[in-house]
């Protein structure tokens, strides 16, 4: 009987220690993930809105029945030159988080997919960057003495590049190349639709919220 109590007490102690250790690991992992997400956001903001000298604080609005966020973009003089919108929607097999840069003229400056876990070779192609060099050109670059300044800016994935310059009215997916729409990735229409929805939904509902806030109470919309 004493042995049973002894082993039970030992098991209880080890279980407690394991729980404390697991909690510590989870807390550490959570902090690292949060730091990585913030780093990706900061880099993405600068990449898709290079004209902005700084960005405002994160502010919330509602898009698709969920909380989305926006950041005002300012130039070096302090003038607001647009906004960046952060919105997450469901893709084919994972949530997809998209950052959209919206210019003061209502046109999209660029977008950046900040998070996705879609099917490799299909939906994951939303992040695929087209090759710009042959193997021999790449090898030649390794022995080059002077750095190539043209390579300083990160390459934009082909699918995401389609959004630049478009208005919200042009945010619909088609299966053939079109300057007036978004061409779907072959075999990944659902993922293509999801990214387009994230951009369209964020812009539409952000602009509606801005219009509502600018309309004085008691006046016609």
Outline of the structure:
The chain is an alpha+beta fold and 221 residues long. Helix content is 38%, strand content 22%. The chain is built from 4 helices and 8 strands.
Can you walk through the features of this model?
- Strand 4 (80-90) and strand 5 (95-103) form a beta hairpin.
- The chain is built from 4 helices and 8 strands, in the order H-E-E-E-E-E-E-H-H-E-E-H.
- The model has no long low-confidence stretch (mean pLDDT 85).
- It is an alpha+beta fold.
- The protein has one domain (5-137, 154-213).
- The strands form 2 sheets. Strands 1, 2, 3, 4, 5 and 6 form a 6-stranded antiparallel β-sheet that branches. A two-stranded parallel sheet has the order 7-8.
Mean pLDDT: 85
Described by the principal axes of the CA atoms, the overall outline is: globular
Give me the number of helical elements: 4
The biggest sheet amounts to: 6 strands, antiparallel
Structural class: alpha+beta
How are the SSEs placed, and which strands pair?
Layout (H helix, E strand, L loop, with lengths): L1 H47 L5 E2 L3 E5 L2 E9 L5 E11 L4 E9 L4 E8 L19 H8 L15 H4 L11 E2 L7 E2 L5 H26 L7
Parallel strand pairs: 7-8
Antiparallel strand pairs: 1-3, 2-3, 3-4, 4-5, 5-6
